[in-house]
Specification:
The chain has 165 residues and is mostly helical. The protein is built from eight helices and four strands.
Length: 165
Amino acid sequence: GFVSILPQAGTYVSRICVRDLEESQFIRESLELGSVRWAVRNFTPELSEALEDLLEQQLKCVKQEDWQQLWRLDEQFHKTIAEFKHTSQVWKITKNAKAHMDRVVRLAYPWIEQLSMITDHHQRLVKLMRQGDVAGVEALMREHLGMIYTFLDPMIERNPEYFSK
C-alpha cells in the first residue's frame, strides 16, 4: 500500500518497494503488449486519429516544458490503446498494477532529460501500428515501458529515504 499506519505512532507515506516495482513492470508490460498487439491487428482510422491528436498535444507540452500535462497525455495515450476494442477493465487493471511505478515516474519527471523520447516513441509506435508491424511495435513498447529503469537508480541515489528493497 501507499500508507503505513503505526498504532500510537502515526500514519506515514510508505516507501516505494523496488521489488514491487519490478513486479508492477512485469504485469504492466504483459497487459500493454497484449493490448498493443490487439490494436495493431485491428487498427482503424479512428484509432490513428485519436493517437495522432494525443501526439500533437504531447509535442506542445514538450516545447512548453509542461511535464504534468505531458504525464497526463502519456497516460491517455496508453489508455487509448488499452481500451481500443476492449472494455475499460484492461486499463483499470493496468493502472492499478503500475501504481507504484507512477510514484517513481512522478518523482522523476522534472529531472528526466529524455522526455522527448516519450513523444518520439509514441510517434514511432503509431507509425509501426499503421504499418501492421506487430514485432516492431512489441519491441518498441518493451523499450518504451523499460525507460523507468534508466532513471530508477539515479532516483534511489538522489532520494534513498523514499525507497526500500
